[in-house]
Amino acid sequence: MDLTLPPKVTERAFDRLCEIGAAEQGKALRVAVEGGGCSGFQYEIALDTPAEGDLILEGRGQKVVVDSVSLPFLTNATIDFTEELIGARFTIENPNATSSCGCGTSFSI
């Protein structure tokens, strides 16, 4: 994994954070990787306050944060927001994942 390529955040993701007023609440979108899920690792996505040591990605006055433990798993990943018939959600396109489950929240490396 090339740790020099941080994750990217799409304009759609920053737009959604604007819509829900994350910055006005003092919150950022936290994207983390934890052990578990049906493929070995799973994404945890939540509104949270930035912490010391977090990588902070900023756009449109909004913030997306990634902790130092999760960062190697998200190298060169793309954080997006999608709206489909089945619902709307933040998604991760991760080039480091060798496989993932059908729901898109679990993956393996």
TrEMBL record:
<protein>
    <submittedName>
        <fullName>Iron-sulfur cluster assembly accessory protein</fullName>
    </submittedName>
</protein>
<dbReference type="InterPro" id="IPR000361">
    <property type="entry name" value="ATAP_core_dom"/>
</dbReference>
<dbReference type="Pfam" id="PF01521">
    <property type="entry name" value="Fe-S_biosyn"/>
</dbReference>
<dbReference type="InterPro" id="IPR035903">
    <property type="entry name" value="HesB-like_dom_sf"/>
</dbReference>
<dbReference type="GO" id="GO:0016226">
    <property type="term" value="P:iron-sulfur cluster assembly"/>
</dbReference>
<dbReference type="InterPro" id="IPR017870">
    <property type="entry name" value="FeS_cluster_insertion_CS"/>
</dbReference>
<dbReference type="GO" id="GO:0005506">
    <property type="term" value="F:iron ion binding"/>
</dbReference>
<feature type="domain" description="Core">
    <location>
        <begin position="8"/>
        <end position="104"/>
    </location>
</feature>
<dbReference type="GO" id="GO:0051539">
    <property type="term" value="F:4 iron, 4 sulfur cluster binding"/>
</dbReference>
<dbReference type="GO" id="GO:0051537">
    <property type="term" value="F:2 iron, 2 sulfur cluster binding"/>
</dbReference>
<dbReference type="InterPro" id="IPR016092">
    <property type="entry name" value="ATAP"/>
</dbReference>
